[in-house]
Each structure stands twice: as C-alpha cells, then as structure tokens.
Amino acid sequence: MRAYEYRHIVGFEETNLVGNVYFVNHLRWQGRCRELFLRDHAPGTLAQMSRGLAFVTVRVVCDYLEELRALDEVSIRMTLESLAQNRLTMSFEYFRTDSGREKLVARGEQQIACMLREGDRMTPIPIPSELRDALRSFSPPPSYMG
Q: How many CB atoms lie within 10 A of CB 94?
C-alpha cells in the first residue's frame, strides 16, 4: 500500500526536560503531514479553504511505542483508513530512520469532518471530489470476500 510521507528532523525545541520528544509534537506532525498532502495532491481543495471549506478534527489518537530525541530523523507516513459521507479517517505510522534503518516508534489516527463555514455556523458538506480522488491512491486495496 502506498503512503504519503513527511520526513522530519526533531529539533531541540520539540523535546522536554528529560530530553525526549514532548508527546504533543507527534500530533503536530500529523497535522503537518496532512497539510503537505493537500499542497502536493489536492491544491484546489486547499484553495477552497479561503472560501469557507473547513476541516474539523473530531478525533485524534497516538500510540507511543518508543521515545524520540533531538536530531532523530522521523518518517511520518499517512494512509487513508476510511471515507464516509463528510468524514475521513487517516492512519499515521512514525518511523525513526537513523543510519538507513527504520524502526516503528508510534502509530496514530485522525478523523476529520468536512464542513462549510457560513458566518458563525458550520454545515457538514461532502468530501471535495479532488481530495477524495487524491486520497484513494493512498488507501488499502478493497478486500474481497471469496
């Protein structure tokens, strides 16, 4: 299965007093990965955001398997988990990629709802077709029951 990849080098400002990455940064990286995906694969959808399209995060999860430290190289890989009406769920895997070897260090998931901002109201809308099409190439193949 194909994944969208965001590569990151951990900065000292992303660590805590103990020297490991502060937990909230994993969630920030999920958001960054999602933003860069839009830039690279759905720029028209990104442009719609200036006309009221909003992506509302309704659920976010991260399971931490190993610590990361300053200057670690991390590959965050995003895949589409599911699409339903106005919501989509993406999965994230975090790999430490030091010395050409990869080690899974965290897993995450994020569900967002597509909404239209109308004044101070938000209304659910279908997932934009450009985004839906772009995400399909990053989703697992359909399973067939035999």
A: 28
- By three-state DSSP, how is residue 111 classified? strand
Reading the block at residue 126, the tokens are 């279908």
Neighbours of 48 (CB within 10 A): 18
- Cα 24 vs. chain centroid, distance in angstroms? 14
What is the model's pTM? 0.90
Please name the residue that has the structure tokens 């200036």.
50
Distance CA 128, CA 117 (A): 14
Residue with tokens 């975090």, as numbered in its chain: 94
Q: Render each residue's pLDDT in the chain as its tens digit; 146 residues.
A: 699 999 999 999 999 998 999 999 999 999 999 999 999 999 999 999 999 999 999 999 999 999 999 999 999 999 999 999 999 999 999 999 987 799 999 999 999 999 999 999 999 999 999 999 999 888 876 654 44
Residue for token pair 């299965």: 1
